[in-house]
Recover the amino acids of this structure.
DNA sequence: AGATTGATTGCACAGCTGTGCATGACAATT
DNA sequence: AATTGTCATGCACAGCTGTGCAATCAATCT
């Protein structure tokens, strides 16, 4: 009947002990005798008691909450990364607070403010970027920041990145080895750091090899944009025969337009490479050669770093760990979307 | 330097007012003069103050947290639903607590316990199911429960369901109208309520029409299972020419096996119908006829119900609202995966 | 036996906020 | 001018937990 939930006081009364004993019962390493613990546990189960982590967090300055800040979360790559992070966070005994952002201005700020208001132990940005001043406020208050595939660095935050430029370079190598003559670059117009890096690597390698290429860059990172990019690139007179797409979603769109609207055979007349290794890239309809991000490992390392930072909170003001960065290498996944040819031993 | 975050006391000191004034400043409808509010807002911005919702929730018995409990969240349909719910929750001024479950026993219980420990205002189950006793404990403590596409009902919880059986029936009608002679049902072996209902509708309609059909049911609800189902169904001597798949993911697997491994033309030799209307169903490679769930509307109505329940918390003990259910009708989306034919006016 | 050690338990406080109650100031009304 | 009403503000308490400190108690040692 009472609208309020059962508290430690109720358990204490039922078990005939002090409220402090109940607290110690659920605090690892606290001093409590086995028999009273047994009594308390029994009473707690009977009442359905769960320690109130709000009150606990209030006094311990550690809520066990980790904010995951993300946009476009229904996208294959994003949802995969989100799942991995949630799993890792839970494995570490914490819980994920999910905050969705959009493209609008100040959306990331708004999200971070939400995280602060719940006194989150950490915030992990999968997209967007908080203003520098607000980020510093977070750090000063003891909140950890992790930035995944973000560009500008915030001192004290962990940067989780991939060697995107290297992937762009390898894409050129693979396409050339497949015998492609006219290369193209298909990318969205969002201008994210990681996407820009993929473009840069592609251009560098093409320039270094002394070959010409064409580009199309517009729209968001979606299947629809992929279709439009494919239409723009493949209806040209000097149609390319090897395209590197900044994203698997784009590549799927390009491939579908080629096959189903323009009647171009893949990979006989057109070789395609994507990036992300989303589930659909492995489906029979696509068989897309792409670069795989070690999503699980990225998530695990991020959370690991958070725990490590929490462990050595002994007086250092974070200045010593000003620059933390983990760099992963995207792994080439060869499938049927690239024409058969000699693939150079680019391994290392 | 101080590890602890800025509190209302700090703001009050800077603004030269009492701490209570700061609290009132951020409480809508509280009595406070415009000039002191201005002073407080200025001081708060200067210090980067955000109201501590943990402490606020502690005293108001309303944390603003809504737990989303889900498994297989990287799946297209699930991630779509998850995104819609997160969006709806945020629109209502609340924040989503994301809890991932797996197939293991007691996983749902564990998740619900997590939700309780954070004194979540509500818990929304997208998969899994808590034990009845634990669910009742939640309700008694004032936590609202929403079950999406779940079978057993928990008194007091909101049931959000679709008319799955009707979809199964319509699938038979559409396949027959397309001229299919040998129907088949492809489903996973998970035995979820909603999936069982789709199967039931299919069988009922086929039986009523007096036609025979074949079935395959095994595995999880994945693309891979779809491939295996397709292989099992389509390599038979009496190969079916019209298949209703309990899920789009399954349908994609079936279609790919048909096209790319068995050389069966879709829709000329094989008509396919799925369920969920995931993004890939609309891609050129699939063009899958399917049933669309009004995901956004489902999310909006769920959160709306939560707010309504919170509003009339005036002494009623929930017994009056024992049975709440919202039933949605899946919408048929016609695409190219079904052979051209006369589609009966099943509207209504 | 007496002293010491160790474990266990209860008291009380801190951590941060919302709000009822009382007080004070000020405007409006008779 | 006196009274009434409104509004703003501060005090103090409640809500739930973790933990330092003192006290109690049993057990062990000399």
């Amino acid at each position: 009947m009472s609208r309020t939930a059962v508290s430690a006081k109720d358990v204490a009364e039922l078990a005939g002990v002090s409220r402090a004993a109940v607290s110690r019962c659920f605090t690892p390493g606290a001093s409590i005798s086995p028999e009273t613990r047994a009594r308390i546990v029994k009473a707690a189960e009977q009442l359905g008691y769960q320690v109130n982590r709000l009150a606990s967090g209030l006094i311990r300055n550690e809520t066990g909450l980790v904010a995951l800040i993300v946009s476009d979360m229904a996208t294959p790559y994003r949802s995969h990364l989100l799942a991995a992070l949630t799993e890792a966070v839970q494995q570490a005994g914490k819980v994920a607070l999910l905050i969705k952002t959009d493209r609008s201005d100040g959306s990331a700020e708004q999200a971070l403010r939400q995280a602060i208001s719940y006194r989150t132990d950490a915030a992990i940005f999968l997209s967007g970027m908080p203003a520098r001043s607000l980020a510093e406020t977070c750090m000063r208050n003891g909140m950890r920041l992790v930035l995944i595939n973000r560009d500008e660095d915030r001192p004290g935050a962990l940067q989780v990145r991939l060697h995107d430029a290297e992937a762009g370079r390898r894409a050129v190598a693979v396409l050339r080895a497949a015998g492609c003559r006219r290369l193209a670059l298909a990318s969205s117009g969002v201008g994210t750091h990681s996407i820009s890096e993929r473009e840069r690597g592609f251009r560098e390698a093409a320039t270094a090899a002394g070959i010409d290429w064409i580009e199309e860059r517009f729209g968001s990172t979606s299947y629809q944009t992929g279709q439009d990019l494919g239409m723009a690139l493949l209806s040209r007179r000097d149609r390319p025969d090897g395209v590197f797409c900044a994203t698997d979603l784009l590549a799927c769109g390009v491939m579908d337009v080629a096959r189903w609207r323009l009647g171009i055979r893949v990979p006989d007349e057109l070789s395609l490479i994507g990036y992300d290794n989303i589930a659909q890239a492995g489906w029979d309809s696509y068989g897309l050669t792409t670069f795989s991000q070690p999503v699980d490992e990225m998530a695990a390392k991020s959370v690991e770093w958070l725990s490590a930072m929490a462990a050595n909170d002994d007086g250092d003001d974070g200045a010593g760990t000003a620059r933390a960065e983990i760099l992963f290498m995207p792994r080439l996944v060869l499938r049927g979307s690239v024409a058969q040819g000699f693939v150079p031993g680019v391994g290392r």
Summary: The mean pLDDT of chain A is 91.
